[in-house]
Amino acid sequence: MSRVAAVILAGGLGTRLGGVRKATLKVGGARLIDLTLTALAAADTIVVSSGTIPPAALALPPGMAALPDLHPESRGPLAGLAAAAAHFLRGPQPPEIIVCAPVDTPFLPPDFLARAVAFLAAGAPAAVARYAGQAYPTTSAWRLSLLADLPRRLLANQGPASLKHLARELSAEPLEWENQPSGDPFANVNTLKDLLDLERRQRSSTASRK
């Protein structure tokens, strides 16, 4: 496997949840940040994009790097990816690939990272997860070499407006995920209903394994 870094996009303000920090919400008794860390554990290094949120408010594991947005007016997850790219490009051994995942995807497949890296190794410039026809630009993989100019462009108020636009610009290819009996593996938490639905799904999954 090529040298791989992962970035957890945790800078969302959770406005539809009343300003709750999604990273510390729990599904099945586990914090969302911890579930995402577990799913991405095979990466050589993991950082967290904290956006404009103070890192202390995310209650990150000790020693984990938190990256603020580069841009004073956040462009959401795109700003998180740009911050990660800038961080890794400054390092002594930049990774070849950055795999992104949002912090609020409790059922992120544990083999997503490996499959995304293999997809890029086969020639794709970037990959965006897709399930049942729906694309998830925040669950994606990118060649760092193609992101080298992204931080500068955002700081200059240039470049793409979102991860979706960046994916189109870089000709990202869909990484198709097969249908799951339990439901969408990339479903995330935006509202209280989402949280309750995913909690019920977790309980059902746990009960079926007993």
Automatic annotation (TrEMBL):
Chemical reaction(s) catalysed: Mo-molybdopterin + GTP + H(+) = Mo-molybdopterin guanine dinucleotide + diphosphate
Bilayer-spanning residue ranges: none
Protein name from the UniProt record: Molybdenum cofactor guanylyltransferase
Main localization of the protein described in the UniProt heading: cytoplasm
Cellular component aspect of the GO annotation: cytoplasm
Superkingdom of this protein's organism: Bacteria
Obligatory cofactor(s): Mg(2+)
Protein's gene: mobA
Localization in the cell: Cytoplasm
Pfam family, one: NTP_transf_3
SUPFAM superfamilies: Nucleotide-diphospho-sugar transferases
E.C. designation(s): 2.7.7.77
GO molecular function, one term: metal ion binding
Function according to Swiss-Prot or TrEMBL: Transfers a GMP moiety from GTP to Mo-molybdopterin (Mo-MPT) cofactor (Moco or molybdenum cofactor) to form Mo-molybdopterin guanine dinucleotide (Mo-MGD) cofactor.
Domain comment as written in the entry: The N-terminal domain determines nucleotide recognition and specific binding, while the C-terminal domain determines the specific binding to the target protein.
InterPro entries associated with the record: MobA-like_NTP_Trfase, Molybde_CF_guanTrfase, Nucleotide-diphossugar_trans
Organism: Paradevosia tibetensis
Residues binding GTP: L9, A10, G11, K22, D69, D104
Similarity comment: Belongs to the MobA family.
Keyword Protein transport tagged: no
Subunit details: Monomer.
